[in-house]
Design brief:
Length: 366
Amino acid sequence: MAAFHPLAASRVRISPLIPAAAMAGTAGAAAASYAQHRRRFCAIVATAAASPVPAAAAAAATGFDFNAYMGEKAAAVNRALDASIPADEPPAALHEAMRYALLAGGKRVRPALCLAACAVVGGREAWAMPAAAAVEMVHTMSLVHDDLPCMDDDDLRRGKPTCHVVYGEPIAVLTGDALLSLSFHHMARFDSYPPDIDADKHPARVVRAIGELARCIGSEGLVAGQVVDLEMTGSTETVPLERLEYIHLHKTAALLEASVVIGAILGGGSDEQIESLRMYARSIGLLFQVVDDILDVTKSSEELGKTAGKDLASDKTTYPKLLGLEKSREFAEKLLSDAREQLSGFDQETAAPLLHLANYIAYRQN
């Protein structure tokens, strides 16, 4: 078998954050398609969804043990993360801080989404494990930077003192930088993948997945959402729903989208499957933030493992602030319904992890 090299691929089309249909045809057609997509998200705010099926009932109906699945995937991802950063090699302070932030806990939702998306299109877990670890590195980077005094200035994360509190601001900044760099290094390394991968197809998939991840966290994705979020924090201007949606589709949903899409790419999914999973991911990404906003005003710091009421104290615009608590809950229910609809074209047994991950995001308590 020919040696696999992650860069041995021709140019690859990177799917945009807006739907693929919006990129085809004339500029007018693209604008109309995107406007239609935008209207769908805005319209569902005013529409109450049918009552969702409780996660426990859904699990009983399908025989799928979600807790066991998440425990198994979290353990596998934690092993991969632990092996990715040396414990004692210099610079020791940096590696210690990276390990502190990365291994401090967390539900590993994004890696689980990546692995589940790979499986639902027929791929093997080992094909997507490097990407699963990479998205958790990126997520942890975003938390480390988000907690800095110049950003959200938080002292508690995952139930522990934040990275800058323990190691100081300079090391915390560099920790985030190093984790971001490591995420791409880990995905691009030849020895991150099993020896039985398809040497003809896998390199192009890796390049496409790396491009997808880079776009979803850069100035078109996570970073863009963070910038607009900072601009709006404390503003006397009434933030319109469209602006709030922009923030969360980029700041929160983009990385969840990347997690799902790169898993599907590495699993060998068709373009049609990848786009269905992309729309599933956007729904659960926005759902994640709506639920986060609700929990921020209904739970304690002890229950959340992070500072509760922080958004209210910093005068951030949130869904409960803009829509009210009840409408926010209705919006969350409709987003969950939309996510389930996107999975209807897949084998339901294979799609069970993605279905239950959506339920988990909707019903989580922290």
